[in-house]
Amino acid sequence: MIFFYGLLWLGSGLEVVRNNHKPMSPAKTLRLEEDLRFGVDERGPEFLWTSLKTSLSVDDSGNIYVADVAETRLLMFDKQGKFLKTLCEKGEGPGEFRALGTFQVLADGTSVASEGFHFGAQRLFFYDSQMKLVNQIEKGEESPRLLMPIFSHDSSHLAAQYRGFDPEEGKQYNYQGLFDKDLNKLMTLGKTEQPLYWSQMDAKGMTQFLVALLENHFKPHGIMGFDSEGNLYTALSNVYEIKVWAMPYKKPFRVIKKDFKPNANNPAHILKLVNRQAVKFRSHKRNNALITERLLAKVADQAVIPPGRNPIHGFIPMENGGMLVITAIDPETGSQEADLFSAEGTFLGNVRTENWSMIGPTGIARMIFRNGYIYTLLTDEEEDTRVVRYRYEITTP
Description:
Shape: globular
Strand order of the largest sheet: 1-2-3-20-19-18-17
Structural class: mainly beta
CATH topology: Neuraminidase
Radius of gyration: 21 Å
């Protein structure tokens, strides 16, 4: 083996890149210049997107697509933010969604959408470059139930969280997996378990349920993502080690490591997490009265929490082959911190953003590098969401 400037080549051909907790001097960051903004400030219902699960995609012409999961619709805007048309809506017919999951424009201009996993069947929709539906794949209840899948550059593979259920034990199991287009499982990364949710919980049951959710947050979660060349990135959330795989994803060709100092799990941060996780359950009228501040404080007190937070929450591939690794999230405001890496896996510096601009609470990416721009969704503390496009450069702070 040969050691050279932080690189380690093993006999198997695996390249290991080791990074110190401090970047190479001089440190770099992303300098952003806002170029376009539209959303809730415009008139019309097509500019209202209320869910933090909302995602966006962009084609080579600069057209912007918003996957509005709350309203089950796919919206198309031109490169100036002018609304063009609604491409897909809720329904049972061909090309219609019972629940929209994700939408993604691929490298060749074609696109693919997924349906939400809550139904028995899993459906994937494939479109040509003119957004004409050309194929629809439907799998039965025996297929994995995928949550917010993302696709490789040619749609031949997808990565997603998937879930298994054991009604007798009253448990739900969560995994991160790599699948081919026919939903054959190729790789599994990470496993957590939690009690099954049911709508008639009493205060004790809800407390136990939220305690399990909170404790799960700090267990090792699998994280996956693809770059524009089809390379797969994988990591476990509790270890700062990212593996990079080329198709057909048989073995990684690079491992990127970085020393890190864990952020402390102080009581204020824990309580923010509890409140964020309780949001979706408060939408039920009965739960809104059940989930009180006192109950949430009890959850924070009863949960067994490690002293430090996980170092990796997600990553955003960049056009130049580099990437952002999200290392910290404020669950109340959505402010986020990320490490900036070069295409060779060298740690360059840090980036800080606001308003859930890199990833959402579920880990779905809300930021895209394409056409020489950064496109993102910003959701402020009033839960108003806007699309923002930035010019950017990698430079010293």
